[in-house]
Amino acid sequence: MKRKLILLFALLTIFLNLHNIKRQVNIVLLQTAYLPFIYTRNLVILLQKTEQICSELSKENQLLRESLKAGGVDDLSSKPTSIKVLVGEIQSFSPLGIPEEVLIKVGDKLLQNPESYSVTDLKGNLIGQVKKQSGGVVLAITLYNSNFRAGVENKNPFYTGLLIGGKSPTVVYVPFDAEAKIGDTLFTSRLSSLLQPDIPVGTVSKTVKDSLNPIFIKLYLTPFFKPFTSRLVLLYGG
Hints:
- By secondary structure, the chain is α+β, with helices and mostly antiparallel strands.
- Strand 6 and strand 7 form a beta hairpin.
- It is built from 3 helices and 12 strands.
């Protein structure tokens, strides 16, 4: 009987002090080989996930290559010779809050036709368009500038519109029967000569009826470009 009472009392004591016991056990484990074991396990899991992602990307790239080859594009390494790609470094944003202009250092590279150059971040997302060059520095307006314009399109379902820059960029002249929806990814249009085509611009965050043009709808855009995340940019043109 006494043994049962002692055992019951011990179990009750453990139950009431379970939190403190767990904390003490955790401290002991962290001071032993348990912590390196956890690090090693997490590293192995991370490597397995990375390997899986690489495998999936490899399969997607292979499918893309096969699709392009089926469409008549055999040499994937060839690029249009008329398109030039330059790397530039942002010298300043203006204004500092939501930048409407950026000064980009390009060194001794001379742009033959500055306004034909699109500007993207290193991920390929649209920043804006070059307006002029002065020495080794070019001035570009961003898609947060009210003077910025660019033709844009959604791939599937296909529809087009005109991107108007500003603190809250919008897309107008989208046909009222277009199957536009929140989350659609917009790219610079292949039908427009304003910028280089197929540059990722952003996603649709809102769709409304255009009160001024009843045959169109208006889209609100969330740009992919996030200012102040990198100083290096790419310039496409020629």
